[in-house]
């Protein structure tokens, strides 16, 4: 809590993969947390971010914003994360691929592609508003905590 007082701005903690760490983040007054395994580069055996998301949202999602980072490559990935309770997602590689291929215009194109894919995926699931999306759009057995 002391760091939030010193900072004065919003405190967002990234790198959360564990329910207990999520609870600690909420207890210390963080405004949001980001479920992330840092691209899987720090610890080879770390679980994927999306596999940890449902339990973390269940534990602290009513107290703190929960975002997802890692594995977001398409609009469908964004939709799945939102259906599992994330308030938003972050991307790393897609915009870098765009930058490498076409510079600034490539970054814009990569983001446009993801946004378009998200719109189409939502429409195919019968939704117009991302805030209405929930786990009902996911097949049972395709996410942690569900059974086939």
In a nutshell, what does this entry contain?
The protein is 45% helix and 11% strand. It is built from six helices and four strands; from the N terminus they run αβαβαβαβαα. It has helices at 2-7, 19-27, 49-60, 75-83, 93-102, 104-124, and strands at 12-16, 32-35, 65-69, 88-90.
Indicate the low-confidence ranges by residue numbers: none
Strand content: 5-15%
Rg, rounded, reads: 16 Å
The count of helical stretches stands at 6
Instruction: Summarize model confidence as the mean pLDDT.
Output: 92
The biggest sheet, with number of strands, parallel, antiparallel or mixed sense and barrel status, is: 4 strands, parallel
Helix vs. strand class? alpha/beta
Order of helices and strands: HEHEHEHEHH
Tally of strands: 4
Distance N terminus to C terminus?
42 Å
CA-based shape: globular
Strand order of the main beta sheet, please? 1-2-3-4
- Give the proportion of residues in helices: 40-55%
Description:
With 148 residues, the protein is of the alpha/beta class. It has a domain at 1-70. The protein has 6 helices and 4 strands. The chain has a 4-stranded parallel beta sheet. The longest helix has 21 residues, at 104-124. The protein is globular. The termini are far apart. The model has no long low-confidence stretch (mean pLDDT 92).
